[in-house]
Amino acid sequence: MTHKVLIIEDDQDISHLIELHLKDMSFGVQTASNGMLGLSMAQQGKYDLIILDLMLPKLDGLEICKHLRGEGNHTPILMLTAKSTELDRVIGLELGADDYLTKPFSIRELIARVKAILRRVSLRTESLPGIGTERIRVNGLSIDPLRHEVMIDDVSVELTAREFDLLHYFAQNPGRVLSRAQLLDQVWGYGHDGYEHTVNSHINRLRKKIEHDPEHARYILTVWGVGYKFAEQGADRSA
Q1: Rg of the chain over CA atoms, in angstroms?
Q2: What is the mean predicted confidence (pLDDT) over 164-171?
Q3: Which of 19, 52, 97, 115 is surrounded by the fewest CB atoms within 10 Å?
Q4: Residue 19 belongs to what H/E stretch?
Q5: Pairing label, strands 49-53, 4-8
Q6: Three-class SS of residue 199?
Q7: Average pLDDT value for residue range 73-96
Q8: Is residue 36 part of a domain?
Q9: Lowest mean pLDDT among 46-55, 93-102, 104-113
């Protein structure tokens, strides 16, 4: 299957370079050089991935992300950010972006991120019945992989796609201590030195959404000096 990618980037050199490498991988690629055009194309077309710059003329990347997710468009988004926009990266992830790359970046790393995102989507949509699809319940938390739904004490919790993948992976491995590097490899689909803070920030946001008291977590527990683990007690699974 040929993947279709939309690049929304106003820097023509960067956009052209990404386009060339994706076309070398036999991807279908379309580009937009401003935010308004990019949003319109994203709304009207069907894409497997959107590569989205944050700083854009006419409409910035955060607004594009907000519009798409607000409309129920869950096309994976890889954000491109500048080093000075840490807050924007956090906001972008909160709005539902799946991953980010900080400029300047290597094409090799971008391609690795693209492949990882598409691989996760493929695994999610092609899951076989009975393999990682059963509902998981533990201490009032319910995770339904088929419906991509999470509930706490029968109250729905809104998670981004990456937050859901992270929580589901934890819940599938109760009691197992997982390092940040392992989580990067298994949930993000890649491992790069220096990106462990990405795991930390996602876990912090996830805890705020599912924990009654994030400072005294009952689901995702910190194992100091090693990583994290998911609580075992009261766990139960059902189809």
Answers
A1: 18
A2: 90
A3: 115
A4: helix 12-24
A5: parallel
A6: helix
A7: 77
A8: yes
A9: 93-102
pLDDT at 191: 58
Q: Sign (positive/negative) of CA torsion 90, 95, 101, 104?
A: negative
Contact indicator for 75, 99 with CB cutoff of 8 Å: no
Task: Look at the block and give the residue holding tokens 């940040």.
Answer: 180
| Whether residue 76 has a cis bond before it, omega within 30° of 0 | no
Q: Higher confidence at residue 57 or residue 188?
A: 57
Tell me the pTM.
0.69
Separation of alpha carbons 98 and 117, rounded Å:
8
Q: Rounded to a whole number, what is the distance in angstroms from the first to the last CA of the chain? A: 31
Report yes or no on 29 lying in a domain.
yes
Instruction: CATH number of the domain at 12, please.
Output: 3.40.50.2300
Secondary structure (DSSP) of 36-71: HHHHHHHHHS--SEEEEESS-SSS-HHHHHHHHHHT
Residue-range definition of the domain harbouring residue 197: 135-238
Place of tokens 């990618």: 5
Rounded-to-integer distance, Cα 1 and Cα 49, Å: 14
- Picking from 239, 95, 220, 131, the residue whose alpha carbon sits closest to that of residue 167 is 220
Q: Could you tell me if 113 and 41 lie in one domain?
A: yes
Higher pLDDT, 202 or 7: 7
Same domain, 8 and 94: yes
**Which 3 state secondary structure label does DSSP give 34?**
coil
